[in-house]
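User: Round two. Same drill as before: sequence, then structure, for each protein.

Assistant: Same drill it is. First protein:
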Amino acid sequence: MTRIAVIGAGAFGRNHVRVVAENSRAQLTHVVDTNVKRAGDQAALYSAAGAASIDEIIGQVDAAIIAAPTSAHAEIGCRLLEAGIDVLVEKPIAVTLAEADRLVETAARHGRILQVGHLERFNPAILELERLATLPLFFEIHRMSVFTLRSLDVDVVLDLMIHDLDIVLALARAELSEIRAAGISILSPKVDIANVRLEFTDGCVANLTASRVSTEKIRKLRVFQPGQYISLDYAKQSAAVCTVGGDAGLAFDQLSIKTGEPLKLQLDAFLDAVETRNPPKLNGTVARRTLEVALAVLDRIEQHAGVVGKTLAAHTQATGWKP
């Protein structure tokens, strides 16, 4: 049985605590949080120990799940990996590519498992899409959330859109050739809503929109490939396929998908990697590539904002208009 500590007992960390405690292949030993009461309260629910520092778990666990703020991923992750502890770190892998490289290099140097929590890759509907995808040529993806105070240390691109960037990069059959993006800040100092267009060398195009200031929660993906259109709802874990052919000229099928909690499926994959020592599908190198694209998207957003700023300044000078 793998002894696991969960680092971070916030909103999402509590979900990790529950899932580890419920898994028969794992033993939840510690919940770590700088808020000692929060750590203790979560630990007590499952007869585990609360801790205020990762120093208290070194030598006591085989693996750890990092659900701390993104800015702390590299520091915490590298210390754990250096101590011989396998790590599942929440997405994004880190804030910068340099930090991501540190995690990847440290895991390799110490022979440790490093898995990154791109949770939607374990959504049963996405697992089915991976099976059905042949030659995706057009993606249309919307990920909208109502505003909350969680994850405001990163932009909406690193908070929400990164899930879909990861999926598109996994399914596209060619290299990324162009990124166009625009985004604005509304309720936080970071970008809260963004629209992105990715183009690949084989002509595949992906349009992605992410918002954390929506009035409703939407998680939908549509993909078009030769002779086929697939529509997927992340939240409902459902998908439908429209295929050219048959007597009517068009066949429509609602896919039979066995639903499941992605977080539990992700943990099982992590435990498989820990037990077999085989690299996980969502390893540090894969997550580093997704982060690289996400950061490039943010760069394009900043460039676009500069162009808009110049346009507004010229308009103000010419007309006297002021925002």
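Second protein:
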Amino acid sequence: MATRTQPFRPPRRKRFGQHFLHDPAILERIAHAIDPQPTDRLVEIGPGRGALTRCLLSAGTGTLDAIEIDRDLVTLLRAEFAEYPRFVLHQNDALQFDFARLASERAGRLRIVGNLPYNISTPLLFHLIGSAGAIQDIHAMLQREVVARLAAAPGDPDYGRLTIMLAPWITVEHLFDVGPGAFQPPPQVWSAVVRLTVRPEPVFTVSPHYSAVVAAAFSHRRKTLRNALRGLIELAQIEACGLDPGARPETFPPHAFNALAQTLEHP
């Protein structure tokens, strides 16, 4: 008796942090939040087995570029979406991908979509913001705690380096939470979908020393601002910025760290 050939399903590769989203209701909810338009230039990071890809193409987006590092998944996706001329697949590492170049090729700002691997989500967000002028918005699935950090305000327990580093370029909207059961295999943590609207220009002119000052300020969270920045910025410089040296860094807004960074521009 003949047996039916089963479709090829590439194995999950743990080193890529793969947890494939499969819940139809969640997929539909994400696609609805993105609301693809015929003029959009969508870019999906880590399409996996193509569940969200299919939703986006069915919704009638303009172009859809997908970035996938797993060669077996690339083979699957090329076969699955071969009939879609609007779909372009890039076998590449998203951390190394040139988003500004793609925006130039597509003649407009990109809309980024992705179930971002937990193990690279923070560096990937930094990489994306490095091309902020090329990106319109980002709809991402992240660990719920990462979304809490992105959305935190000064004084909140989750407020810290990630919040402050991205704040000049983005506004954050926590859309909804997603339980482990929506994925295969289920992760050990809850996830959340977030909308990051990217400003083409930052809300303030970011000092070249901004990153160094923020990193130093949060290298030891329990320290006061004076102690955290000891050896980098003098007490008088902190006071000249109108900041309390005895307060903790997590109580200050992003522009305060930029003011501190600016003191290093003209020693």
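The mean pLDDT is 91.

User: Perfect.
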